[in-house]
Design a protein that fits this description.
heterodimer; A: mainly alpha; B: mainly alpha; globular
Chain lengths: 213, 254
């Protein structure tokens, strides 16, 4: 049906990254839950700085999404067949940074939007665009062929970086679409750095004086 | 009752805009890329994935919006809003059938821009075909609304409702011809790559019937038989009764 060799394995690898992205987004919904139930005041009263609080939330959100998606990653590896241990460790580290970055992005957007309904809508639209305009479901060459603009967006998409790195990490030549892993790795590091920095700055500003309400 | 539910529906107008954007992203990004990826023989057979998927997308939108009524009823049940509903000057059966009908009508309203997009890109059906498409989609919407209410009154929390919705969604959509041709599922079944029970489910699935009927009218394939509409009618009747019965039971419970 699909004109790509080993598309099943290719798609399974992308599915793990899509699930990781969706699971990491959930931390944003927790922010609203906490604000609604008064847990936010308790968190603010803890003997930790604001920076530590937001960093902890990003890392916590990233880690729990990893635990959630862990079984799926294991199944993906089983389906794909084999892994290159060194490449896979590098990839795993990059995927951790990716999920922390997505959590940071979710927290940043949640504290900026302030309404759980609007957040739900915005994240739904963002999810639809960020996943479809990436290489999670299809190789970059086809996205570029479909529309050069789509291809250009997909080239700078963190989901593309993570999906391509995951496939590279398996070391299975037939599903690899990546020659040089350094660029997507740097892309994931930049994504993590940007949203952690943004997250810390915006979180610090928004929570003072009840600004998060 | 219908007016009440429509007012609620339009309270979520931005949510609907978001949902339509997601559906259109599926059509204008994913379907266009799959147009290129498909094997040329299959692509030629179905006239391109974009055209194949457009009717399926209208059915996807119909399902998502008609299912929303269940979420509201689940919430009303937890917040005990049904006391207000019971105080309204109407019988229990009017109340229950009104909820099912309004859920279905909301699905039709939401689906209409997606169906219009489908007509724009695939061409227009004749008047009788158009009326039949509307009638079948309305029956389907009522069935989905009934299914959603049946699940809503059988689940005690929002999490359970959302989990059940996910299960129903994935079973009904992936065992249907919404995303891929029914002939392909049948071929996989014959090769032993797809369980026979799921192949049968895909064949009798009302979502397959509705998608394939629109495709037949607009694209000339796959073959369509009026007998297949019996499944849509049965689905609609079954879940309208199940929802009405379940809803009446739950609102009268202390």
């Amino acid at each position: 049906m699909i004109n790509i060799p080993y598309y099943f394995q290719y798609y399974v690898a992308g599915l793990s990254v899509m699930s990781l992205y969706s699971a990491a987004i959930f931390i944003g919904f927790d922010i609203y839950e906490e604000a609604e139930h008064g847990v936010f005041e308790y968190l603010l009263s803890l003997p930790v700085s604001r920076k530590q609080l937001v960093l902890g939330r990003s890392i916590g959100g990233g880690l729990r999404s990893f635990i959630y998606v862990g079984p799926l990653i294991a199944i993906s590896l089983y389906v794909i067949g084999a892994i290159n241990p060194f490449s896979f460790l590098v990839t795993l580290f990059a995927l951790f940074l990716f999920s922390f970055g997505v959590s940071g992005m979710s927290i940043t957007i949640a504290v900026l939007i302030k309404s759980s309904d609007r957040f739900d809508i915005f994240m739904g639209v963002l999810d639809a665009l960020i996943v479809r305009l990436s290489t999670a479901m299809y190789p970059l060459a086809y996205v570029q062929q479909a529309n050069p603009l789509y291809g250009w967006i997909a080239s700078f998409n963190p989901v593309t970086f993570a999906a391509d790195l995951f496939r590279w990490g398996t070391g299975i030549e037939k599903i690899m679409t990546l020659q040089n892993p350094l660029l997507p790795f740097l892309g994931v590091v930049a994504f993590f750095g940007l949203f952690t920095l943004f997250g810390v700055t915006i979180y610090e500003r928004m929570i003072e004086g009840g600004g998060w309400q | 009752m219908v007016e009440h539910d429509f007012r609620n529906f339009f309270r979520y107008k931005w949510w609907l805009v978001g949902l339509i954007s997601m559906n259109l992203a599926d059509l204008f990004i994913m379907a266009i890329v799959y147009n290129i990826i498909l094997e040329p023989s299959l692509s030629q057979q179905i006239g391109g994935y974009f055209k194949f998927f457009a009717p399926g997308l209208a059915v996807t939108g119909l399902f998502a919006s008609a299912f929303m009524i269940g979420r509201e009823i689940n919430m009303e049940r937890r917040r005990e809003v049904h006391h207000y509903m019971l105080s309204l000057p109407m019988t229990r059966i009017e109340l229950a059938v009104g909820r099912v009908l309004s859920g279905g009508l909301r699905g039709m309203v939401y689906m209409s821009p997606l169906l219009a997009t489908c007509f724009i890109f695939l061409g227009l059906p004749n008047v009788w075909q158009f009326l039949l498409i509307l009638a079948v989609l309305f029956l389907l919407a009522i069935g989905i609304s009934g299914l959603s209410i049946t699940i809503a009154v059988s689940t005690s929390s929002l999490e359970k409702f959302i989990t059940a919705r996910g299960l129903v969604y994935y079973t009904l959509f992936f065992c249907s011809s919404v995303f891929y041709p029914l002939s392909l599922i049948e071929e996989l079944g014959r090769d032993g790559k797809f369980p026979a029970i799921l192949v049968t489910l895909a064949e009798v699935n009302p979502l397959s019937t509705a998608s394939d009927m629109i495709r037949n009218f607009l694209l000339g394939y796959p073959p369509f038989s009026f007998v297949s509409l019996i499944g849509v009618v049965a689905f609609s009747v079954l879940f309208t009764f199940a929802a009405a019965f379940g809803y009446m039971k739950i609102i009268e419970r202390q």
